[in-house]
Amino acid sequence: MIVIVLLICLSIAALGYLLQELQRPTNYPPGPRWLPFVGNTPFIRKLAQAHGGLHLAFEALAKQYNSDVIGLKLGREYVVVALQYPAVREVHSKEAFDGRPNNFFIRLRTMGTRLGVTCTDGPFWAEHRNFVTRHLRQAGYGRKPMQLQIQNELNELIGMIRDLKEEPVWPGSILPTSVINVLWTFTTGSRIARDDERLARLLLLLQNRSKAFDMSGGILSQLPWLRYIAPEWTGYNLLKRFNKELNEFFMITIDKHHQQYSEDKCNDDLIYAYIKEMKNQQSEKNTTFTDLQLTMIILDIFIAGSQTTSITIDLALMMLVLKPNIQQKIREEVDANLQPDELPQQIDRTNLPYTEAFLLEVQRYFHIVPVSGPRRALEDCTLGGYQIPKNTTVLMGLRTVHMDPNHWSDPEEFRPERFLDADNNITNTERLIPFGLARRRCLGESLARACMFTFLVGLIQKFSMHKPENCLEDPSVKLQSGITLSPKPYKIVFRPR
């Protein structure tokens, strides 16, 4: 009799738990019904495969439910997706959405903890972001020293391309090293040799990592227990390998800085400045300045500088090949304003409005980060009139903003002129937000813009870009999915002018 009663009680408890798992929070944004334990994860993965990407799956749901805010549950985690400009801007502007998720994927990314700058929040995030920003500026970030470093990398890149002697090359295979070395110099005080095997391995890991996960962390974040069953398929082994090699790669440089540290070097680069702060705080019991935190800060800078910027330049070169009339127009503008041997710099942007508009259109048209975030609701709040429970993960659909026909009129057309007014001045940029807005605006925006402009103009000065003669197919404007979208490998010919 007792056993029967226990079984009945357990059954009632299990049923109550399942009903609670299935229940949507009050006034939660519209979206599909979810299953116990796994939520919408199987459905969203299937939908993403059918539509060609997670961002396109979100857009399909927005149309289905006629809402710019979609409510999901991925695994055990509430996830809300903001689509279209008003909702995306609301997420950026409300302090309630300034948090970062505290899930398995985020912790695994930083070796089991929540460290670095990108994936942290609260006082810890504010303290370290302010420190990094202050010391990068002291080292010349955003000013002439940064421009000189970019110009040095441009010269090295031009020399490498000349050595190819018009041999077809995929720009994506040579650009990341040039971009990385700009930030690497500010961070460590020296550049990395292009033929360094460790660097080649690290770049490959970054590319594989980008393709293996999406902005919601992939299935590893939503169903972390699957790592015990399928560690390779979920990407768990990849992240473990990535963490190990990354730690070894950075710790060699950090250890060398510790050995060579002196007070007079603290303004030479970020690592020396950080070590000085570690020494100043070593007597404090709860200091957050550690070697592991420094490693994670470098990781954040490395990821921000190595992929999105180089991919954007890669896509810009691809469009010059696909649109020779645009390439000619940019060349004429550059030649009219710069001497052949005059290295481009940031101040030239105002004299090259069509070139600037072209780069803006590349960022709008390709939106290589179609879904940005993730954010975490720090408290119960609202978004688009819906209730958002505390600790909900919030994603933002940038593709829907950059391809909104109600604002851009003809978003599927690649047209740089949309960013120029009647007087040839840059305009219409308020809804172009590849670097985000407000307090969490991208830390590397200044570097990214300077690199994109300087590299593009410098290459236009020295080369014309063409499709290989024996190539029958044009490069594809359809990008490969991942955390960041990237072009399928293609080749172009750089012909000296």
Q: What topology emerges from the helices and strands here?
A:
Blueprint: H1 2-22, H2 41-51, H3 54-65, E1 69-74, E2 77-83, H4 85-93, H5 104-109, H6 122-138, H7 144-163, H8 175-188, H9 197-212, H10 218-222, H11 236-260, H12 270-280, H13 291-322, H14 324-337, H15 353-366, E3 371-376, E4 381-383, E5 386-388, E6 393-397, H16 398-402, H17 405-408, H18 445-462, E7 463-466, E8 493-496
Parallel strand pairs: 2-6
Antiparallel strand pairs: 1-2, 3-6, 4-5, 7-8
Helix pairs in contact: 2-3, 7-8, 7-18, 8-13, 9-11, 11-13, 13-14, 13-15, 13-18
Describe the structure.
The protein is α+β, with helices and mostly antiparallel strands and 497 residues long. The protein has helices spanning 2-22, 41-51, 54-65, 85-93, 104-109, 122-138, 144-163, 175-188, 197-212, 218-222, 236-260, 270-280, 291-322, 324-337, 353-366, 398-402, 405-408, 445-462; strands at 69-74, 77-83, 371-376, 381-383, 386-388, 393-397, 463-466, 493-496. It has a single domain (2-496), classed as Cytochrome p450 (Orthogonal Bundle). The protein is 51% helix and 8% strand. It has a four-stranded mixed β-sheet. A hairpin with a 2-residue loop joins strand 1 (69-74) and strand 2. Helix 7 (144-163) runs antiparallel to helix 8, helix 13 packs across helix 15 (353-366) and helix 13 (291-322) runs parallel beside helix 18. The N and C termini lie far apart (93 Å).
